[in-house]
Amino acid sequence: MNTPSPARSRLSPQRLERITEHLQQHYIAPGKIAGCQLLVAHQGEASYLRSFGKMDLARDKPMREDTIFRIYSMTKPITSIALMQLYERGLFQLNDPVSRVIPEWNDLRVWVSGEGRAMKTEALKRPITFRHLLSHTAGLTYGGGLAVAGEVLHPVDQVYREHKVFRGPGDDLASFVQKLGRVPLRYQPGERWMYSLATDVCGYLVQALSGQRFDAYLREHILEPLGMHDTAFSIDPAKLERFASNYTRAADRSLKLMDDAQASSYATEPSFHSGGGGLLGTTADYWRFCEMLRQGGQLEGRRIIGSRTLKLMTMNHLPGGRDLTHSAIGLFSETTNEGIGFGLGFASPFDAVAAGTLATDDFYWGGLASTLFWVDPREQLVVIFMTQLVPSSTFNFRGQLKNLVYSSFDD
């Protein structure tokens, strides 16, 4: 990554330094996170780039600039771009039913009430479309995989568990979508929004429509063209020393090891390539992806997605143009709800007053281990925050960093 060059930026170096104080005082010193890395890039150059704390507490390894992180759901925008590349090739329309690619979904039912043998379901009012999957309005759930403490498992999520709808060893994308065809939908497609396994289905659609295995497609059409050489579904043994350990919070709020970097399952190539949350990567790699987005779909002369397609993806596709407050079901998401819309793989604020934000032209998402990014083409801004703390709902890093970054503009 290039070094910060504040002389070319409208961001005040002095005001940006408040970020250093904030992260050190509130998160690193009290041990709330092991370490983190933050990039604030303006007009394509780094205005602020800092690494804090440790990437591995047990081994006392400092966070380094080329640390490799689990980016979890920050995989979703990459998968969404991949599927929309095939849209640009004329292989589907957004309102096409996905059952033409997944015939096992022809007879899906929708939950109405009850559970187990007493469960009542109804027929689809409309088929699940590509748009529904890209915008998390298809009626799918996470199968209870993201349930928060004290949350009662919904009857539909119980069926997910009965049919072993997981993304683990032994499954692949084809068997995954077949299992989903046996599970009732949580709601009628297109009527609500729920964070879900939909983007994993998008990964299958990329594979089915392109004729390439999903990971191979990503590598050829996005990762290699963008020079994202450290981004993959598993960790190369030669790069293991750069891999961060992952943590969660114990009952006493101390950090608890969740996945030891040196003994991680990511050392093995997975059978299931999760388009919803499977990638590892560096800040530098994800910056290249974000710079492509900031520049309207191209980077260094390589066109990844059309500018008009990207504009469509970042529009609000929620039912009736409403915000997530009026559309969302479920307690977990990678965004707040008030004044926030959702497009085809990205969230974006459209009501600054309701959202309580200093920005309304950015689009973004985050990952389960508290990683996050946003891209703001109007302000020519990219921000990427990397850490490894599960779940991402533990602290509101996005809200805090937005306040600190946008108030650093010197105009």
Q: What does it look like?
A:
- The chain is an alpha+beta fold.
- The chain is 28% helix and 17% strand.
- The protein has 12 helices and 17 strands.
- Strand 14 and strand 15 (372-376) form a beta hairpin.
- Helix 5 (173-180) packs across helix 6 (198-210).
- The longest helix is centred in the N-terminal third of the chain and has 16 residues, at 13-28.
- The radius of gyration is 21 Å and the shape is globular.
- The protein starts with 12 loop residues before the first helix and ends in a 5-residue tail after the last helix.
- The mean pLDDT is 95.
Tell me the layout of helices and strands:
Elements (H helix, E strand, L loop, with lengths): L12 H16 L6 E8 L2 E12 L4 E2 L6 E2 L4 H14 L20 E5 L6 E4 L6 H5 L20 H8 L10 H8 L17 H13 L3 H13 L19 E4 L5 E5 L20 E2 L1 H12 L3 E2 L2 E2 L3 H7 L10 H4 L12 E3 L4 E3 L2 H4 L7 E4 L5 E5 L4 E6 L2 E2 L6 H10 L5
Parallel strand pairs: 7-17
Antiparallel strand pairs: 1-2, 1-16, 2-3, 4-9, 5-6, 7-8, 10-11, 12-13, 14-15, 15-16
Helix pairs in contact: 2-6, 5-6
Instruction: Specify the structural class.
Output: alpha+beta
Sketch the topology as an H/E string, one letter per element: HEEEEHEEHHHHHEEEHEEHHEEHEEEEH
Q: Mind telling me the C-alpha Rg?
A: 21 Å
H/I helix tally: 12
Task: Specify the helix fraction band.
Answer: 25-40%
Q: Can you tell me the residue ranges where pLDDT is under 50 for at least 5 consecutive residues?
A: none
Largest sheet: 6 strands, antiparallel
Q: What shape does the CA trace take?
A: globular
Could you give the distance between the termini? 27 Å
